[in-house]
Amino acid sequence: MTRAGGRGDAAVTVTTVVVAFALAFVLDPLVGEPPTAAHPVAWFGKLVGALDREWTDSPTGQRLVGVGIALFAPLVPAAVAAGVVLGASYLHPLAGAAVAGLVLFTATSLRSLLELTGEVLAATEGGAEAEGDLDTARERVRGLVGRDTSALSPAELRSAAVESAAENLSDGLIATLLPFAVLAPLSLPAAAAAAAWVKGVNTLDSMLGYPSKPIGTASARLDDLVMWVPARVTAAAIAVAGADPLAVARARADARRPASPNSGWPMATLAHVLEVRLRKRDAYDLHAEADLPTLEDGRRAVALVRRAALVAVVVAVALAIALAVAVGVALVAGLEPGASLPEVGRP
Question: Where does this protein reside within or beyond the cell (predicted)?
Answer without folding.
Answer: Cell membrane
